[in-house]
């Protein structure tokens, strides 16, 4: 009975930490759906132009997120060990990482924007729009970096609600500005509504402004957090603590770089299939995001709680926490996969009126639907290893599966076997399954114990 009460208490706390992240993921996906649908209303070329640059922006922002994970892991483990001084020092390093990483990413994004569509082998008809879109959303990357790194720092001290609320504000700004900036002046329910008519450029400006708003709001709450004591002491650089964050964050950055550069290469290979397949590919990726919500919501809880357990030097608690969260996520993602399988055609139709794009997008979504539970386990394992600070081996696994299976397999499917988008998505599924199995065997064999 006592054991059941303990398990019940742990489950309750898992859900307490997870629900804000789940809501945040849901809001993010909802807004990305609205954003994609608004751009999709402009036609397949507009969808392809925006979709072309998404993978590159993932690459840039994933670097910021990676160093945020370094801060999260150090904060969570120090919090679990009851070391408030180390929590304060680690939290303050987030400020310096934001300045350095954010400045570098902004410069890189602005410099490569004019050349990016050509490098990716995009159709000439979409290159100008793709370049404009990417350049505009790259300009405020300092603010986007602030959102990602400060959010991770706050999650490291179990503040899940603030990142959720700040993302809600960002999303509202993005949607409202999309409404006014993308379309020309028109009548809505018989009421004249002003519109700038900027098309893709309007969508980019809306996103950029939301980054600025989110970064400023997140900085305000970060400074006011009691765990970091910034309002009281200011920020102070600590070389040793910053090094600890970097030791954890650099392999994650390398892993994200491998994955996201792989996504860029993957996108460039898919772009060779033509505008319609690429538009279907981009929209299907967007549509699938809603079914990641349970996984990424519980991933945040896994990182924080596993980090706490590791700081407490409790191996059994590490295993139990990861097992509970993994099992819950598997069941939720199983249900999500079934829903995706049954509603693929209807879902793609939300984003585009082009029936050829809808048909092809629905077919690839049905392919990926069967692997959703496995992907859920993969996401939780990633969060588990991030919370532990065991980040080197996952980097190697990502390198092997992304480039050896997804990229290599896609190249074979397109250039040697002359197959279409469906075959490409099969390789994507195989990549995810193999990476999940590699991470699972590492966890079960306890190769992370060196972190205790």
Would you give an account of this structure?
This protein is mainly alpha-helical. It is built from 17 helices and 2 strands. The protein has helices spanning 2-40, 44-81, 84-112, 116-119, 124-138, 141-156, 161-181, 200-224, 230-233, 239-271, 275-288, 293-311, 315-348, 355-369, 372-388, 392-416, 421-444; strands at residues 184-188, 191-196. A hairpin with a 2-residue loop joins β1 and β2 (191-196). The longest helix is centred in the N-terminal third of the chain and has 39 residues, at 2-40. The radius of gyration is 22 Å and the shape is globular. The mean pLDDT is 87.
Strand content: under 5%
Oligomer: single chain
Helix % is over 70%
Low-pLDDT regions: none
SSE arrangement, N to C: HHHHHHHEEHHHHHHHHHH
Can you summarize the main beta sheet? 2 strands, antiparallel
SS-based class: mainly alpha
The chain-level mean pLDDT equals 87
Number of helices: 17
Key traits:
2 strands; globular; 452 residues; mainly alpha; 82% helix
Question: Mind sketching the topology for me?
Answer:
Layout: H1 2-40, H2 44-81, H3 84-112, H4 116-119, H5 124-138, H6 141-156, H7 161-181, E1 184-188, E2 191-196, H8 200-224, H9 230-233, H10 239-271, H11 275-288, H12 293-311, H13 315-348, H14 355-369, H15 372-388, H16 392-416, H17 421-444
Antiparallel strand pairs: 1-2
Helix pairs in contact: 1-7, 1-12, 2-3, 2-5, 2-6, 2-10, 2-11, 2-12, 3-5, 3-6, 5-8, 6-8, 7-8, 10-16, 11-14, 12-13, 12-15, 13-14, 13-15, 14-17, 15-17, 16-17
């Amino acid at each position: 009975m006592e054991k059941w009460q303990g398990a019940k208490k742990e489950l309750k706390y898992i859900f307490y930490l997870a629900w804000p992240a789940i809501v945040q993921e849901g809001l993010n996906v909802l807004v990305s759906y609205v954003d994609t649908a608004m751009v999709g209303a402009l036609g397949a070329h507009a969808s392809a132009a925006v979709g072309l640059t998404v993978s590159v922006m993932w690459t840039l922002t994933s670097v910021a997120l990676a160093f945020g994970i370094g801060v999260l892991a150090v904060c969570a483990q120090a919090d679990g060990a009851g070391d408030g001084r180390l929590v304060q020092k680690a939290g303050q390093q987030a400020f310096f990482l934001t300045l350095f990483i954010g400045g570098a990413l902004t410069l890189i994004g602005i410099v490569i924007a004019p050349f990016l569509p050509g490098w990716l082998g995009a159709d000439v008809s979409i290159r100008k729009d793709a370049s404009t879109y990417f350049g505009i959303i790259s300009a405020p990357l300092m603010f986007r970096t602030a959102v990602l790194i400060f959010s991770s720092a706050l999650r490291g001290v179990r503040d899940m609600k603030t990142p959720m609320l700040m993302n809600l504000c960002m999303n509202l700004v993005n949607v409202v500005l999309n409404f006014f900036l993308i379309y020309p002046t028109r009548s809505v329910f018989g009421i004249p509504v002003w519109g700038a008519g900027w098309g893709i450029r309007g969508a980019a400006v809306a996103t950029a402004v939301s980054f600025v708003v989110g970064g400023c709001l997140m900085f305000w709450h970060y400074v006011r957090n009691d765990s970091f004591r910034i309002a009281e002491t200011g920020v102070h650089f600590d070389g040793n603590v910053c090094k600890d964050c970097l030791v954890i964050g650099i392999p994650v950055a390398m892993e994200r770089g491998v994955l996201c550069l792989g996504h860029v290469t993957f996108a460039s290979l898919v772009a060779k299939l033509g505008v319609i397949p690429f538009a279907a590919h981009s929209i299907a990726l967007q549509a699938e995001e809603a079914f990641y919500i349970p996984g990424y919501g519980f991933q945040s809880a896994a990182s924080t709680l596993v980090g706490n357990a590791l700081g407490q030097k409790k191996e059994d608690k590490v295993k139990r926490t990861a097992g509970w969260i993994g099992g819950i996520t598997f069941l939720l993602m199983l249900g999500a996969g079934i829903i995706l399988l049954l509603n693929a055609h209807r879902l793609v139709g939300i984003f585009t009126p082009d029936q050829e794009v809808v048909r092809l997008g629905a077919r690839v979504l049905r392919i990926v639907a069967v692997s959703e539970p496995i992907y859920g386990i993969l996401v939780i394992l990633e969060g588990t290893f991030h919370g532990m600070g065991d980040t080197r081996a996952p980097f190697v696994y990502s390198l092997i599966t992304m480039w050896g299976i997804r990229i290599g397999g896609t190249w074979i499917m397109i250039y040697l076997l002359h197959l279409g988008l469906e075959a490409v998505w099969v390789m994507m599924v195989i990549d995810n399954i193999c990476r999940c199995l590699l991470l699972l065997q590492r966890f079960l064999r306890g190769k992370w114990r060196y972190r205790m």
